[in-house]
Amino acid sequence: MTQLTADLNRSIDIGGRQADSRLLMAPMAGLTHVAFRHLAAGYGGYGLMFTEMCSAKALPQENPRVSPVFQWRPSELPNLVCQIFGSDPDTMVRAARRIESEGFFGVDVNMGCCVAAICKQGAGAALLRQPDRAADIVAALRGAVDIPVTVKFRTGWQDDPDLAVNMARRLADAGADALTFHPRVAPDLRARPPKWDYIRAVKEAVDIPVFGNGEVFSEKDCRAMLDKTGCHGVALGRMALARPWIFAQWTGGFVPDEETYPKCAHRMLDLLAHYYESVNALRRFRKWIVYFAANFVYGHQFSSKVRRAKDMDAARREIDAFFASDAARGSVPNRNLFQ
């Protein structure tokens, strides 16, 4: 067992509940849906997984049997956090109470999404401009539910670590049980590397667990983030999409072989077909394949062919054809393919 494996496998208390691993799956809109979580769960190794972001306004009326985002397997609830977005404390409370009643591990507030449609509602990263409202939301949730309340947030709208530190303190004082911090400014998607030293500043400013997020693509990266920032754990985003077994690989010694990759792609197709009707299943597969294809030397060609597939059967044929050829892989995914 490596030291990294030992460190990641230490359980951690979050609001009185235990996560068995310090390696989390970060929430990603349109990607961490029930089918992908089911795929990753088959490998194991994660501490917590997060849903894709759900509208707090819509969530109390959502029907899990037909909702594209508020859907889950009962077996995953003990390790599943539901992420919500919104700007009104009362609306957020109603959503959180529904989440608690369904049995989720916790509720997470999105304060990082900088998509215009979300920010125009005063939600997501827009809350970083309104620290009082952000704190009011967390305080309202903390007073309304008994499950853990967590927040995923960015540096702010300016490149100033003090903004992140002050926001972290406000959120912790309001009752947040843990924070996931992505150290980039809100308008900056991935044009510049995240500033990991900001994670250390945030971690040292609060007395609750802080999980780092951003540009972790290898065990070396993971080790470096833990050592350089002192963060309590790591939340994986794009790397989890590219290699859903990465949690098991880093925490349990899972070793992928030649069959792991084609089996993973076919399993993703099968699960999407199980949970969604064909059009939406194909749309979600096209979105995911960009990340998975980054594993391969000719991943851009593979991704392009699959994304042109007219139906799920055609996508399956493209997968078979690719793996029947020389599907050479890189040691780490080519992140340029999914910037």
By CATH, the superfamily of the largest domain comes out as Aldolase class I
* Rg measurement, Å: 19 Å
The CATH top-level class label of the largest domain: Alpha Beta
SSE string, helix = H, strand = E? HEEEHEEEHEHHEHEHEHEHHHHHH
* Count of structural domains: 2
Give the % helix: 40-55%
Q: Helix segment count?
A: 14
Q: Per the principal axes of the C-alpha atoms, what is the gross shape? A: globular
Strand content: 5-15%
Chain oligomer state: single chain
**Which sheet architecture does the biggest sheet show?**
9 strands, parallel
Topology overview:
Blueprint lengths: L2 H6 L3 E3 L2 E3 L3 E3 L8 H8 L7 E2 L3 E2 L24 E6 L3 H14 L3 E6 L4 H4 L11 H14 L4 E8 L4 H14 L3 E8 L10 H10 L4 E3 L6 H11 L3 E4 L1 H5 L3 H7 L7 H16 L2 H16 L5 H9 L4 H13 L15
Parallel strand pairs: 3-11, 4-6, 5-6, 6-7, 7-8, 8-9, 9-10, 10-11
Antiparallel strand pairs: 1-2
Helix pairs in contact: 2-11, 3-5, 5-6, 6-7, 11-12, 11-14, 12-13, 13-14
Can you give a write-up of this model?
The chain is α/β, with parallel strands linked by helices. The chain has two domains: 3-252, Aldolase class I (TIM Barrel, Alpha-Beta Barrel), CATH 3.20.20.70; 260-338, no CATH class. Helices cover 43% and strands 14% of the residues. The protein has 14 helices and eleven strands. It has helices at residues 3-8, 34-41, 89-102, 116-119, 131-144, 161-174, 196-205, 219-229, 238-242, 246-252, 260-275, 278-293, 299-307, 312-324, and strands spanning 12-14, 17-19, 23-25, 49-50, 54-55, 80-85, 106-111, 149-156, 178-185, 210-212, 233-236. Strands 3, 4, 5, 6, 7, 8, 9, 10 and 11 form a nine-stranded parallel beta sheet that branches. The chain has a two-stranded antiparallel ribbon with strand order 1-2. The longest helix has 16 residues, at 260-275. It is globular, with a radius of gyration of 19 Å. It starts with a helix and ends in a 15-residue tail after the last helix.
